[in-house]
Amino acid sequence: MSAAPRVASSRAELAALLADRRGRPDRVGLVPTMGALHEGHASLMDVARQAVGTGPVVASIFVNPLQFGPQEDLDRYPRTLQADLEVCAATGVDIVFTPTVEEVYPGGEPQVTLDPGPLAEILEGKTRPGHFRGVLVVVAKLFGLVRPEVAVFGQKDYQQLTLIRRMATDLCMDIDVVGAETVREPDGLAMSSRNRYLGAEQRQQAVGLSRALLAARAAAIEGAAAAVAAARAELATWPAVEVDYLAVTDPSLEPLPAEVPAGTEGRVLVAARVGTTRLIDNMSIVLGSPAVGRDTLPGGADRAVSSVEVHP
Known about the structure:
alpha/beta, Rossmann fold, Pantoate--beta-alanine Ligase, Chain: A,domain 2, 2 domains, 6-stranded parallel sheet, 3-stranded antiparallel sheet, 10 helices
């Protein structure tokens, strides 16, 4: 079994643990999380280890209040620190940063923040105003505290990943932002810390999200509109799934033109509530080409998203 990671609960402790790494050729990897870790998080830590080799891997565990809206689940978000530390140990994480809210936001909510731009106003951003501002603020803070060369995020939160990459590019952060494949349950449900909120029947219904994405992928040979129609038809067979949005975009979440060449890559994204639990998922698709080898799940706004965005 791997050695227990060193734990830092303050910025000063984190700086001390990383001090002997500064100036060395080893790269530092960072995996930001909000805890309640599962196999999906463990896969991010594995990707970080592969990226930095013998360099240190830092995992942060912090439930960030800035990214929760007034009616969202901040208070009930699962906090399982001891189990999380065991996951970090099993994946060979070297340092775990577990700060308090006061440690991350001394003096309260910051007065200087980041404008996430127009990409934060669509999809998740349209449903959750201010969410991505809070995400980028805390990620920028973690980047400044850890100063990693590599940071790993899951593709399940695809819009978040896209915005963090844009922030790193626009602000010249010189960090390799890696998007790791979504890890799924055997029936296809994307792993999420919020899955534990689902009752048994709700859990069975939640698989409808991934089935809808597969339907879109299979129908993408006929184009984006057909992909959305197929996904919507599949979702209609899962009565407990209340769709928030369903959209097909290009891989950077920009709108697709009305006509695209065969073989054009795209992304299909969905958000829905199952009971009181809000879930998101997404999948790559290829428009205008047969979905060869893509019929099974992988192991792993005001501004229109596209002409085929659907809001029930």
